[in-house]
Amino acid sequence: MSTIGYESWAVDLADVGPVYPFQGSEVLMVVIGVVFWLGWHLIQFQREKAHLEKARKMGDTEQIERALERY
Amino acid sequence: MDGNLNALTTIFTEFYYWVTVVFMFLIHVGFCMYEVGASRRRNHMHTLMKNIMIIPLVTVTFFFFGWWIYWAFPNFYIFGGTIDWESGAANTPWSPNMGTNLDDRITGVFWAAFLLFSWTAASIVSGSVIERIRSSALWVHAVLIGSVLWVIDAAWGWHYAGWMVKYLGYHDAYASGVIHAIAGGYALGVIMVLGPRIGKFASDGTPRDIPPHNPWLLTIGIFLIYTGFWGFYAACNVPLISPEAIGGQITGVTWTATNIYLAPTSLSAITFNFLMSLSGGLMAAYLVSKGDAFWTFSGGLAGVITASAGNDLYHPLQAMIVAAIGVVIVYNLHGWVERKFKLDDAVGAVAVHGYAGVVGLILAGFILWGAPSSPFEGYATINPLGQTIGAVIMFLVLGFLPGWGVAKIQSMFGVLRIPEEVELQGLDFADHDTYEAAKADIIEADKAHLAAKARA
Fold first, then answer.
1. Which residues contact A14 (CB under 8 A, 6 or more apart)?
2. How far apart are CA B70 and CA B186, in angstroms?
3. What is the H or E stretch that residue B354 is in?
4. Which of A3, A13, B370, B386 would suit a FRET pair with B181, their CA atoms being 20 to 30 Å apart?
5. What is the pLDDT of residues A51-64, one digit of tens each?
6. What is the pLDDT of residues A17-33, one digit of tens each?
7. Do A71 and B42 touch (CB under 8 A)?
8. How are the residues of chain B apportioned to helix, strand and coil, as percentages rounded to the nearest 5?
9. Does residue A9 belong to the interface with chain B, where contact is any CB pair within 8 Å?
10. DSSP state letter for B92
C-alpha cells in the first residue's frame, strides 16, 4: 500500500502522471483550502476591528505628540 | 518527454520560468522596501505587514480560481463567446496538472510566473494607500485585483486567443496595460474614496510633501524593482518554440522566442529595449523634475512601463523616446491631478503605473500600426483605435470602476479607513507601547538579578 500510488520506482516514467498522496481527494482538499482562506479573513477582520477600537483610546496627547515628533 | 530534443526543450523551459520567478520575487521585496521607506516610523511595521500578507493571500486565491480564469475567459461573453471549460479544466485547483505530476513539468512554473505578476498588481495598489487604510480592506482589494481582475484582462488581451487580440489587434507584450494600467486605475479608484492622509493638503488646498522616513530604503527598493523587472520581461516570453508547435502562419523550421501571443521576438531585442527605455525614462525624469531624486528613480520605472507594450518590436532608440515622452506626460499629469482633485497617491503609483501604462498602449498603437498582433490567421493588426479601447478597458473598466465601487462599499460599512486617532498616533503605537513595556520589564529584571548577585 502506498499513499502516492507507487511502491517502487521500477516503472517506465512515460507511464507516470501524478505522484502526490491521496489522489482522488482533490476536491475535498480544495474545500478545506477555501475554508482555511475565508476563515483567515474572518478572524483577521474581527481582530483588526477590535484592535483599532482599543488603539484609538490608547495614547494621551503627550504620548501622541512624542510619536509625531519621532516622525 | 520522449526524445532528447523534447526533453531538453522541456527542462530548459521549466528552468527558464523558474529563474524568472526567483528574479521577480525581488519586485515584491522592492515594493516592500519602497513602502516602508516612504511611510513614517510610527506606521512602518503595519505598512510592511500589509504588503507581505499580499503574498500568501494572492497565492492561494490564484491557485483556487485565478489560474482557471486565465484559461477559461479569453472569449468570455464577448461577441458570443463563452467560458472555455475545456481549456479551463486542466487548470482548476483540483486538476492533477496542479500538483506533483511527472507528466506535466510546465504548469507549476508557468502558474508561478503569472502569480508573481498578480503580486505586483496588488502591491502597486498597496503603495498608494499607505498609512490610512485598514489592512483587512486592502487585502480584499489585493485578492480582487491580483486573482480576478488582472487575470480577466490577461485572458482578454494577453492570451494568444484573447478576444482583444483577435478583434482589436491589442498588443501589450510586457504588460503596460494588463498589469500597470489596470493596477494604477484600481489604485486611483480606491484613493478617491479613501481620502488623503491627515495634513497632506493645507487649508488652501496646496499639497504638502510628506517626506520618506528613510530615503535610502526607497532607493534600494526601486533598484530591486528594476532588477526584478528583468525577470518580469523574460517571463513574458516563451523562450524557445518551433513554428510547428505554434501552429500559425510562420513558415519554415526556424525555432524562436516569442511574446505571450506566440509572435516572434528575441531576448536580445528586449534587453536592448529594457535598458534604453530605462535610460530614456531616467533622463527625462531628471530634467522634468529638476533632479528630484525620487521622481528621477521612479521615472526610470515609468519609462520602462511606457515602452513595455511594444518593447518586443521597437528599435532601442524608439524605446528610449517613447519612455521619455511617457515620463513627461506622467509627471505633469500626476501634479495636475493631485492639485485639482486633492488626491493623495503616497508613492505615485497611479502615475508611474497607471498613466504610464495608458500612454504606452496608445503610443504603441501608432508606432506599430499595421504590424501583426498574432501569428494566427484572421487577427486584426495593431492599430491606434484598438490600443486606445484597450487602454480604456484596462484603466477604467477593469481598474478604476471596480476599485472605486468596492472601496465605496467598504466605506459605507466603515471598514475602509482606520480611525483618525489611530492615524495620528500611528498604526504601530500599540506595538511600540508593548515593546517599551517589555523592554522596561526585562531591564528591571536584569537589574534585580545583578543587585542580588552583588549582595551574595
1. B1, B2
2. 19
3. none
4. B370
5. 999 988 887 888 88
6. 999 999 999 999 999 99
7. yes
8. 70, 5, 30
9. no
10. S
Evaluate the CA torsion angle B27, B29, B30, B34 in order and state its sign.
positive
pLDDT value of residue B192: 98
Contacts of B19 by beta carbon, 8 Å cutoff, 6+ apart = B231, B234
B126-175 residue pLDDT tens: 999 999 999 999 999 999 999 999 999 999 999 999 999 999 999 999 99
Name the residue type at position B313: L
Q: How many angstroms separate the CA atoms of B232 and A10, rounded?
A: 40
Please indicate, yes or no, if residue A4 is contained in any of the structural domains: no
For chains A and B, CB pairs below 8 A equal 98
pLDDT in tens, B18-41: 999 999 999 999 999 999 999 999
Question: What CATH fold (topology level) applies to the domain B4-425?
Answer: Ammonium transporter fold (1.10.3430)
Predicted pLDDT of residue B80: 75
Q: What is the pLDDT of residue B77?
A: 77
DSSP state for residue B65 in the 8-state scheme: I
Give kind and range of the element (H or E) at residue B81. none
pTM score, two decimals?
0.94
As a whole number of angstroms, the distance between CA B98 and CA B109 comes to 11
Vertex B222 angle, CA B217 and B228, to 5°: 125
- pLDDT tens digit string along B399-453? 999 999 999 999 999 999 999 999 999 998 877 777 777 888 899 999 999 999 9
Q: Which residues of B touch A37 (CB under 8 A)?
A: 57, 60-61, 64
- Looking at residue A59, its pLDDT comes to 76
Q: Which of A26, A37, A58 sits opposite B429 (nearest CB)?
A: A58
Residue B456 confidence class, pLDDT cut points 50, 70, 90: confident
Torsion of CA B381, B71, B111, A3, to 10 degrees: -160
The beta-strand segments (E) located in B174-237 are: none
Residues B192, B104 contacting (CB under 8 angstroms): no
Q: A68: buried, middle or exposed (CB in 10 Å: 19+, 13-18, 0-12)?
A: middle
> Do the beta carbons of residue B410 and residue B416 sit within 8 Å?
yes
* pLDDT, mean over chain B: 95
CA dihedral angle for residue B117, residue B119, residue B124, residue B130, rounded to 10 degrees: 180
Write out the three cell numbers for B172: 501589450
Within an 8 Å CB–CB cutoff, is residue A39 touching chain B?
A: no
Separation of alpha carbons B104 and B1, rounded Å: 9
Residue A31 in domain: yes
Chain A residue closest in CA terms to B104 = A17
Q: What is the domain partition of chain B in residue ranges?
A: 4-425
Q: Looking at the 3D structure of chain A, how many domains does it have?
A: 1
Q: Which amino acid is at A27?
A: V
**Does B1 have pLDDT greater than 70?**
no
Whole domain around residue A35: which residue ranges? Answer: 26-70
Cβ B204 vs Cβ B418: under 8 Å: no
Helix %, strand %, coil % of chain A (to 5): 60, 0, 40
Residue A7 domain-assigned?
A: no
Distance from CA of A46 to the nearest CA of B (A): 9
